[in-house]
Amino acid sequence: MGFRSGGAMLRLLVWAAFLLGCCHGRFVVEKNSLKVTAPDDLKGTYECAIGNFGVPQYGGTMVGFVAYPKANKKACKSFDDFDISYKAKPGSFPTFLLVDRGDCYFTKKAWNAQNAGAAAILVADDKDEPLITMDTPEESGRAEYLENITIPSALITKSFGDRLKKAIDNGDMVNVNLDWREALPHPDERVEYEFWTNSNDECGPKCDSQIDFVKSFKGAAQVLEKKGYTEFTPHYITWYCPEAFILSKQCKSQCINHGRYCAPDPEQDFSKGYDGKDVVVQNLRQVCVFKVAKEHKKPWLWWDYVTDFAIRCPMKEKKYTKECADGVIKSLGLDHKAIDKCIGDPDADEENPVLKAEQDAQIGKGSRGDVTILPTLVINNRQYRGKLDKGAVLKALCAGFRETTEPAVCLSEDIQTNECLENNGGCWQDKAANITACKDTFRGRVCECPVVKGVKFVGDGYTHCEASGSGRCEINNGGCWKETRNGRTYSACTDDGCKCPDGFKGDGKHKCEDIDECKERTACQCKECKCKNTWGSYECSCSGGLLYMKEHDTCISKNGATETGWGFLWVIFFGLVAAGIAGYAVYKYRIRRYMDSEIRAIMAQYMPLDNQGDVQSHSHHIEM
């Protein structure tokens, strides 16, 4: 066995040891629903596994019919060679091409189906087994078409595939609905996502696609993070060296901390270039950059560091070093001493707490399986499947928000179609006030009565919405009647609803009519009164120089009214004068009595009063 093949064997043993050490974990196949609507004997919902390439329509659905080719059933060759086309004609259903597994890569089948005009590809398994994830090929010489696959793909079970084929052979039209709306959890207004990646830039097309994704997605990721819409965490996979090989040259070159944390040799050649341990250290440095940046409340700087490091410190230019990394760190204003402290001593025979946490995080928890594929994107604790592309990933992130809480970027034309633009989405609308109950969402639209300028509208959102509470009259007059004539305006809007004002009658919402008080004899009905109706009111005058008193609906003499008025004032005046004199008399009387009592009290202290003297003299006379 040669040295290189020995290294390959070691890598296999390392991987086996990792699996044995993590046997309590498991790989979770991410699935979506496939619903058959016809024929009747196939109606139902079936599971299918999402392919790890193409662009799954996260948050959406796709309707089409299934076609099974009469030739090239495994889709390993171009359908042009067989003069077969599945391009949809105007007004027709899209085609979901059903093909058999085997003989070529899943991606090759998808590429040929896409070129033939299929809207999606369903691959029927060739044996009875649990569903697996269809992944991209690992060989370094992958074809360029992989990055250009845009149709969604799904693997179905052999038994389900056989039933579909039988129905098609019988001449039945098989209608299906691919549903990705629940492929990702969407519990609240914030999306948590992880990106499992690698600092190695010499692993071929997969490494190239990773750094290309980071560069293109950086701007969107940083905006979402800064505004609090997302919480992002980067992760890095490491393995450990089997104890029997810890002292071997291979483990020493691929591992740090005495074989605890390892990475494959970047060039797959131990005799040249960088070693696996160099990759582990740079991975660790990138984790520490994130930790320190997050402690300073700037976690988005990770995207800047990874992008700049890839540009300034590539392996090909022999710059994949600590010195180059420190230069990038310094240019971003990060504390390189804190980062070095986080990294610790790679040569120490002890655990590194940061890398130990990374290894623990690789094990699946809850609905998320073990992370075994690089790169891997995890959104709301569910592994993303599909093309690592800015647009595709952004769609998946948008599918993770609770409906109506999505940020504006998720509602742009590049991401989704605004269903409120056509027939207002079938929702209630007040065109005059430019108010609508239609709310565009990433998944479609909802009809929900709005809140406008602090005023809440209530109703079903589809046929009826009405302003409620205080301030409702400020918004389109609360939907109530309102009219202006001859400079006078009347409104039926009140805080409690629509009610015609005094002088009008009607429903208050659509119509209020003037009440003719003269004709209906509700006012100005005295003998001398002359009534004239006006819009919203009336005018009443009196004949013979009399004066009309509206409160009593009567006419009185102007002179009489004046005399009565002056007489009333004189009565009040004399009453006040009398009250003043009486008050003064009472005041004088009370003062005088008070002064008399005070004087008598003072005199009693210095001389006996007459009656006191008589008593004392009489008493003395008796004793003698």
Automatic annotation (TrEMBL):
Range of residues in the leader sequence: 1-25
Stretches assigned to coiled coil: none
Listed GO CC annotations: clathrin-coated vesicle membrane; Golgi membrane
Protein's cellular compartments: Cytoplasmic vesicle, Clathrin-coated vesicle membrane; Golgi apparatus membrane; Prevacuolar compartment membrane
Superkingdom of origin organism: Eukaryota
Chief subcellular location: membrane
Segments crossing the lipid bilayer: 565-587
Domain EGF-like calcium-binding: 514-556
Sorted UniProt keywords: Calcium, Cytoplasmic vesicle, Disulfide bond, EGF-like domain, Glycoprotein, Golgi apparatus, Membrane, Protein transport, Repeat, Signal, Transmembrane, Transmembrane helix, Transport
Keyword DNA repair among record annotations: no
GO biological process, one term: protein targeting to vacuole
Pfam families from the UniProt entry: PA, VSR_TRX
Membrane disposition: Single-pass type I membrane protein
InterPro entries recorded: EGF-like_Ca-bd_dom, EGF_Ca-bd_CS, PA_dom_sf, PA_domain, VSR_TRX
PROSITE patterns for this protein: EGF_CA, PROKAR_LIPOPROTEIN
Family: Belongs to the VSR (BP-80) family.
Name assigned to this protein: EGF-like calcium-binding domain-containing protein
